[in-house]
Write a structure and sequence with these properties.
The chain has 13 helices and 12 strands. By secondary structure, the chain is an alpha/beta fold. The protein has 2 domains: 135 residues, no CATH class; 192 residues, Spore Coat Polysaccharide Biosynthesis Protein SpsA, Chain A. The strands form 3 sheets. A 7-stranded mixed beta sheet has the order 3-2-1-4-8-6-9, with helices on both faces. It has a 3-stranded mixed beta sheet with strand order 5-10-7. α1 crosses α6.
């Protein structure tokens, strides 16, 4: 038999775990949803929207992205693609759609700038629209996406409006890892709190975000975050610091993207994201411990209860198993993966422990952040 204080400690820890798991569920329910816009007569004057896409070696995804934009039902639309030194067929894809798609060639990348930020800044400088829509090269859009996003931003009086896209998952590793990624994003950034007046939460989704040119210039544009790997979060913090309203909505029918196509791509992409995040190096070490403590260690309560004959621990352990596996099955289904992949969430947790651990190691050894053939100085 275990001492009473040990049982009490395990039970108290289990309650903390359950409360934390509930936060992700609560945030998921709090996220507003934006759906395709109803048909519009299109007679009223609409502000000009400039869509800016930073593209570097995007020949696989860019054609579909541009073709979707070319059939948008928004009448006053400008499409610019910043061709950022690609070595594949990206430039030809852009030129094949001229003049409806403009190709922008940025000057050589200056020291201290991240490539995407430099490309976005060049696109904004070349744009002539009243609103700027920054879109990733791999984002597929519904024909009403631009209009729906703009109308929503105007209605909400948002100076930065961002859409959370539906993540398309083709392989097994994507279906295991990406639902957990969604949960981590919800809880770490307190995503729905972004929409609350007076909230300090600040984030945006760099895949799809919209801003009036006046607000973008007021916060200093991409020059204000020129060295940031997570430029979307950094931009959101600039808007928040300036007192400008931010909004974010879940829009699975308006915008979709397949972020990664293999376990190797997921690992490389997420290590880059974590390594380049604002989190300090010591905090990364804490993340690894927290992942194990909040998601894996609770699964040991049931076998400990059974082994020691503790009815309290057996009951709590069984409840933890049902709650944890049930929650992850529900999340998997909610983001478009078969529910059965939620039963593999311990593998997802272990994968993210490897991701954070690898990012921690790269920070400690001073290795640069690497992405799309470029290396950026290490963050401490």
């Amino acid at each position: 038999m275990l001492p009473l204080w040990v049982v009490a400690t395990i039970l108290a820890g289990s309650v903390v775990v359950l409360l934390y798991q509930g936060i992700a569920i609560l945030f998921a329910f709090e996220m507003p949803r934006l759906d395709p816009a109803p048909a519009s007569a299109g007679t009223e004057r609409r502000p000009k929207v400039s869509v800016i896409i930073a593209a570097r070696n995007e020949e696989l995804d860019l054609p579909a992205t541009l073709d979707d934009l070319l059939v948008q039902d928004y009448p006053n639309l400008e499409i610019l693609v910043v061709e950022d030194g690609s070595t594949d067929g990206t430039r030809a894809i852009i030129e094949a759609r001229a003049p409806r798609v403009r190709c922008v060639h940025p000057p050589p990348l200056p020291h201290g700038w991240v490539g995407k930020n430099w490309a976005c800044a060049a696109g904004a400088a070349a744009a002539t629209g009243d609103w700027l829509l920054f879109l990733d090269a791999d984002v597929r859009t519904h024909p009403t996406a631009v209009r729906a996003a703009l109308e929503w931003a105007v209605k909400e009086r948002a100076e930065l409006a961002s859409l959370a896209t539906r993540i398309e998952m083709g392989g097994a590793w994507e279906r295991v890892a990406m639902p957990f990624y969604v949960q981590m994003t919800l809880t770490y950034f307190r995503t729905p709190h972004v929409n609350r007046p007076g909230s300090r939460a600040a984030m945006a989704n760099g895949q799809f975000w919209l801003s009036p040119r006046s607000a973008y210039e007021r916060v200093g544009g991409h020059a204000s975050v020129k060295g940031e790997i997570l430029e979307d979060v950094a931009m959101a913090r600039q808007y928040r610091a300036a007192g400008l309203p931010i909004r974010i909505a879940w829009a699975p029918e308006l915008a979709q993207t397949r972020m990664y196509r293999s376990g190797r791509e997921i690992l490389a992409g997420l290590v880059r994201t974590v390594q380049g995040s604002p989190a300090s190096t010591p905090l990364l070490a804490g993340f690894v411990v927290a992942l194990g403590a909040l998601f894996l260690l609770p699964l040991a309560v049931l076998p400990v209860g059974l082994a020691t004959g503790s009815i309290a621990l057996t009951g709590m352990g069984g409840f933890l198993w049902v709650a944890l596996f049930g929650k992850h099955v529900a999340f998997a289904r909610a983001v478009g993966a078969p529910g059965g992949y939620g039963l593999l969430f311990p593998a997802a947790v272990a994968f993210y422990m490897v991701v954070v651990g690898a990012a921690f190691g790269r920070r400690l050894t001073g290795r640069p952040v690497e992405w799309k053939g470029r290396a950026y100085g290490p963050r401490r």
